[in-house]
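A reminder from the course coordinator: this example appears on the midterm review sheet, so study it carefully.

Given structure:
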């Protein structure tokens, strides 16, 4: 077996671009220094960090001073959510989130509930869109924060961030708007001023950058309470050391992805459309989870295959060197029904039979053809063993 020979689990992580690895190399060797003042080595790294920060900030329409490098998207989410709660939650203690959001947001919401905050959980419709009528009704005089996942991590639904911001603006007080953009960054256009977000989390390894580095956008007039304490080396929110080589790789990945973002998106959309049409043409009784077209992210195809379980399919494909995911890779431990699909109205059978294919710029049509052919054979074999399938399709 050749693990990951065909890799279609790019929502979890992506293959680093060779140019990213090359950009990182000097900081593992001759430029190993830390940033600092008054000495040439520290000042040289300071200059590089300022340049890297400008590259990443520019990709979301932010200023260099509004960007905080950190160890990844999860930490960025934590710094924003806990930081907003600490800064603005002394008297007002109401937060809004949805039941289909990423675990980073939901676990922080649960933590804040234990700290005395009240959380309203919005429902979602059958395509994974947050219920905006419920959002309007949930707003209270003590609401301090609404947080959402820009692109759903399971089915790829693109939440209407501009509409959400318009609803938040109807309140007679400021409601801080946090967005987890882990699955959106580099897949859809994101401009923090146009969207009106106050904080936003992004990650490098979702766009062919290195693992272990991300960034938090913090609007210049927004305060965040400190949740990590220590000496400031690189950033005042994540104190202590940060890997300069990873930040260099992050900046290079951004340059490569955003040099032609429309082209990047168009290529991903064409490949995912081809994957979906090929799946539907070759496998009977298959159902797309989430919306079709531009309302879903261009790299995500999630389907349910009737009568068989996704875990079995995943393992059988893996034996052929084909890597895919079942349900949500961040929420499928223990073989539980996926919480996002269940919230969208799917049943346990549909949830357990779900498969998630997430593509990258390296995905080819030949890889898709081989994957679908293998999946069609596996589906036929597993359905032969399925009592439910045989009972439903018994000869008349």
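Designed residues:
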């Amino acid at each position: 077996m050749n693990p990951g020979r065909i890799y279609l689990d790019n929502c979890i992580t992506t293959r680093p671009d060779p140019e990213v690895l090359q950009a990182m190399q000097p900081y593992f060797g001759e430029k190993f220094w830390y940033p600092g003042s008054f000495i040439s080595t520290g000042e040289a790294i300071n200059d590089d960090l300022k340049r890297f920060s400008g590259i990443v900030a520019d990709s979301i329409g932010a200023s260099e001073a509004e960007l905080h490098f950190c160890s990844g998207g999860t930490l960025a989410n934590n710094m924003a959510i806990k930081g907003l709660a600490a800064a603005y939650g002394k008297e007002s203690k109401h937060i809004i989130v949805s039941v289909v959001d990423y675990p980073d947001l939901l676990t922080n919401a649960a933590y804040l509930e234990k700290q005395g905050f009240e959380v309203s959980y919005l429902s979602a419709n059958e395509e994974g869109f947050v219920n905006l009528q419920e959002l309007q009704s949930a707003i209270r005089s003590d609401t301090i924060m609404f947080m959402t996942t820009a692109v759903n991590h399971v089915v790829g639904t693109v939440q209407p961030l501009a509409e959400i911001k318009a609803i938040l603006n109807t309140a007679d007080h400021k409601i801080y708007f946090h967005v987890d953009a882990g699955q959106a960054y580099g897949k859809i256009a994101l401009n923090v001023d146009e969207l009106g977000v106050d904080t936003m989390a992004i990650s490098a390894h979702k766009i062919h950058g290195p693992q272990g580095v991300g960034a938090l956008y913090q609007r210049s007039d927004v305060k965040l309470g400190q949740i990590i304490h220590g000496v400031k080396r690189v950033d005042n929110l994540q104190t202590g050391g940060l890997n300069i080589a990873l930040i260099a790789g992050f900046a290079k990945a951004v340059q490569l992805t955003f040099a032609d973002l429309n082209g990047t998106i168009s290529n991903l959309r064409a490949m995912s459309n081809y994957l979906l049409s090929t799946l539907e043409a070759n496998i009977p009784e298959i159902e797309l989870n989430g919306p079709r077209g531009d309302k879903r992210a261009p790299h995500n195809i999630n389907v349910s295959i009737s009568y068989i379980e996704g875990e079995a399919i995943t393992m059988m494909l893996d034996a052929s060197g084909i890597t895919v995911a079942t349900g949500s890779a961040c929420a499928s431990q223990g073989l539980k029904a996926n919480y996002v699909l269940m919230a969208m109205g799917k049943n346990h059978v549909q949830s357990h039979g779900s498969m998630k294919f997430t593509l990258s710029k390296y995905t080819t049509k030949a890889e898709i053809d081989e994957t679908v052919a293998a999946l069609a054979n596996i589906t036929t074999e597993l359905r032969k063993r399925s009592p439910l399938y045989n009972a439903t399709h018994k000869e008349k």
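Confidence is low (pLDDT under 50) at residues 328-332. Residues 261-282 form the longest helix (22 residues).
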